[in-house]
């Protein structure tokens, strides 16, 4: 094997990523008439009437350069054809550990100042913009435009297609997250409560709760039917019908977002076949991922397949087409098929085209977060679901469509919550690459 054939190291991939960013920012700033842009990492919010701060994640465009999710009150100046200038807030402090530089390749590509204060740097003469959670008055004091829409939209678009470095980071995040899923499943099978399952996940994925890219969803039984269930029960339920685990990881700023559902020892016999059906559906949809495919088309395909599954498993007594047309599949699955993934779990520019023009979701599917045509370099989630949510199904009883639902069978599944199977997939020039390790 020659040197050119050898796989690139992570440092080399990051150097290429930064070179690509420097070129892209330079082209965008020049085209829009800016001499540079100042990116603010952001700062955590304090709880009301308290000195404790909430969990924090840095501004996505700041992380695009540094990968540092917890670097607060810091500033990054980008100008065409000049080294990035980074001012890191690192005060003398015995209450907290000040910020430190990681042993990563990007550090060598920046001019870095470790500063005791968090004030923005003085900008040179020229036309500048400042982006992030900043006030118009602060931007005025710097003589800079505050979050101009044209620049923000262009930089958002620049994050849609991931570099090889970013794909590698996303793959690493998925690897760690899947280690957590394996441990969580074992904790569930061992009879653990939701809190036990969460702790097993954190331990195996090697992260603290505040470092998660989103709050893990650990739903036993009916809690799996609450799409963003936000608690962790400390006692196991008397009956263990199901576990829905939606849990991620952040690696160098990049997010994994994986969901699995498992049947418990007390599950109704109808539940496991439904899990198998949703898993098979997910695999079929992943196989269809490729450049040029419109994501809303896949979303509609999901609903058609859900109709087929619900009919095949005896929950509905009508045609799959009727199940979709009468809104029954949307009562069983009210969320979108997936979303863009990157530095943010629901990454930017998912509902606009390449020129920043709005691509709103269909009226029937307002929760669909990705309405674009797929392109090589995108990373998306693929997460079909099937739930028994009483508040969504109850209105069907008052309609003619309700006669086609096997209500006794549905009610036996009500305390199982629901099913969601989610992988993270990169779109390649010829198809796709599933970043989520197999179980």
From TrEMBL:
Alphabetized, the UniProt keywords read: Dipeptidase, Hydrolase, Manganese, Metal-binding, Metalloprotease, Protease
4Fe-4S as a keyword of this entry, yes or no, is no
Q: Which transformation does this protein catalyse, written as a reaction?
A: Xaa-L-Pro dipeptide + H2O = an L-alpha-amino acid + L-proline
UniProt xrefs under Gene3D superfamilies: Creatinase/methionine aminopeptidase superfamily (3.90.230.10), Creatinase/prolidase N-terminal domain (3.40.350.10)
User: An example Gene Ontology cellular component term from the record?
Assistant: cytosol
Q: Which residues bind Mn(2+) 2?
A: 246, 257, 422
Peptidase M24 domain mapped to chain residues: 169-429
Q: Which residues form the Xaa-Pro dipeptidase N-terminal domain?
A: 15-155
Which cofactor is recorded for it? Mn(2+)
Q: Write one Gene Ontology MF term.
A: proline dipeptidase activity
Q: Which SUPFAM superfamilies does the annotation name?
A: Creatinase/aminopeptidase
Q: Cite the cofactor comment.
A: Binds 2 manganese ions per subunit.
Q: What does it do?
A: Splits dipeptides with a prolyl residue in the C-terminal position.
List the NCBIfam families: PRK13607.1
Q: Which HAMAP family match?
A: X_Pro_dipeptid (MF_01279)
The family classification in the record reads: Belongs to the peptidase M24B family. Bacterial-type prolidase subfamily.
Q: What is this protein called?
A: Xaa-Pro dipeptidase
Origin organism is: Halomonas fontilapidosi
């Amino acid at each position: 094997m020659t040197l050119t054939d050898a796989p690139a190291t992570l440092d080399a991939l990051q150097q290429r990523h930064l070179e690509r960013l420097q070129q892209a920012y330079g082209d965008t700033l020049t085209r829009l008439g800016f001499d540079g842009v100042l990116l603010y990492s952001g700062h955590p919010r304090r709880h009301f009437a308290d000195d404790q701060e909430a969990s924090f994640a840095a501004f996505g465009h700041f992380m695009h350069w540094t990968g540092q999710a917890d670097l607060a009150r810091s500033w990054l100046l980008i100008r065409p054809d000049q080294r990035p200038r980074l001012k890191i807030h690192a005060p003398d402090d015995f209450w907290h550990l000040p910020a430190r530089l990681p042993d990563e390749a990007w550090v060598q590509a920046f001019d870095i100042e470790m500063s005791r204060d968090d004030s923005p740097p003085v900008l040179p003469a020229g036309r500048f913009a400042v982006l992030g959670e900043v006030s118009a008055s602060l931007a005025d004091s710097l003589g800079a435009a505050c979050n101009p829409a044209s620049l923000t939209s262009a930089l958002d678009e620049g994050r849609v297609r991931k570099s090889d470095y970013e794909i590698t980071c996303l793959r690493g995040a998925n690897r760690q997250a899947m280690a957590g899923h394996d441990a969580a499943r074992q904790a569930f099978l061992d009879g653990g409560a939701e809190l036990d399952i969460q702790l097993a996940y954190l331990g195996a994925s090697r992260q603290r709760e505040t470092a998660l890219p989103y709050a893990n969803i650990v739903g036993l039984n009916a809690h799996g039917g609450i799409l963003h269930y936000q608690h962790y029960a400390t006692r196991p339920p008397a009956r263990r019908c199901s576990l829905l685990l939606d849990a991620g990881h952040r690696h160098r700023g990049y997010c994994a977002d994986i969901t699995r559902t498992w049947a418990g020892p007390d599950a109704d016999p109808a539940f496991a076949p439904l899990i198998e059906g949703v898993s098979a559906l997910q695999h079929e949809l992943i196989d269809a991922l490729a450049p040029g495919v419109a994501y809303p088309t896949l979303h509609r395909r999901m609903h058609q397949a859900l109709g087929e599954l619900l009919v095949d498993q005896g929950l509905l007594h009508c045609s799959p087409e009727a199940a979709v047309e009468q809104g029954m599949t949307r009562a069983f699955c009210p969320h979108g098929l997936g979303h863009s993934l990157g530095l943010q779990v629901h990454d930017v520019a998912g509902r606009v085209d390449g020129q920043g023009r709005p691509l709103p979701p269909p009226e029937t599917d307002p929760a669909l977060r990705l309405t674009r045509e797929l392109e090589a370099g995108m990373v998306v989630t693929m997460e079909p679901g099937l739930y028994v949510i009483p508040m969504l199904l109850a209105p069907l009883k008052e309609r003619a469509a309700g006669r086609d639902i096997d209500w006794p069978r549905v009610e036996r599944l009500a305390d199982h919550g629901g099913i969601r199977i989610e992988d993270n997939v990169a779109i390649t020039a010829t198809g796709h690459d599933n970043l989520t390790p197999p179980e």
